[in-house]
Structures are given as C-alpha cells and as structure tokens.
Amino acid sequence: MRLESEKVTTNKNQQEMFIFLTDVRNYEQLMPESIQKFEPISDDTFLFQLKGMPEIHLQIKETNEPELVVLGSTSEKLPFTLNIHISEKGTEQSEVFMDFQGEFNAMMSMMIKSPLKKFINTLSENAAKL
C-alpha cells in the first residue's frame, strides 16, 4: 500500500527542516491531537500511541541531507516506511510531503487506509504550522 500526503510549505528552509526532522523529540509537535503517548527511546527511535490504536515504534532508517528522512517501523508485524521529502522553496521556506509504503494483507489495508491517510496529512499539516 502506498499513500501520499498533500505538499505543504513550511516556514523553515530546507536545511532547518531536515535538522528538525532528524531529531526524534520534534515529532511530538507534528502528532495529531489524539496522541495519548509519545516517548523518545534513543537518538533515532521513538514510540507513539494514538487514541484507540496500539503503540507504534518508529526509527530513523535513512537520511539524505537535506532532502529526505526515512522513518521505519521497528515491528515485523507492521512493516512500513514513511518517507519525508523536503525540497527548497526560497531562502526561508521549504516544501514537505510524505509518502507511506507498507506491506499489508487486503483486510488490514482496508481497515487502516483511511485513518492512515488522515494521519500522514495531519503530520504534514502540522509541519506547515511550525
């Protein structure tokens, strides 16, 4: 399954946004209001839980400075990546969009597609508010 967020413009330049997104503590600012738990585990890993959902552990799996941050699930039961693309948009702004890629069975895909799309759109919308 592949889902993409809307492209948003942020008030951070490309390098500033990359630095922001490579610090796992900053992801708490991007989370939806329905967040119940957020906890940095290490320099590259954090966990979060949304209302009515299980805990999800994410790890920074790859970076390509200053244009890409790849987050991946640490669970083999829910294998997915969230690629965050950052492009330059002037000297004081950047454009961000996220694409989610996961391997799920058809039933699981049907159940999570809509909430997942809403989740990645919320992450990108909150990045625009920074």
TrEMBL record:
- Which superkingdom heads the taxonomic lineage of this protein's source? Bacteria
Q: Which Gene3D superfamilies does this entry report, sorted A to Z?
A: 3.30.530.20
**Protein name according to UniProt:** SRPBCC family protein
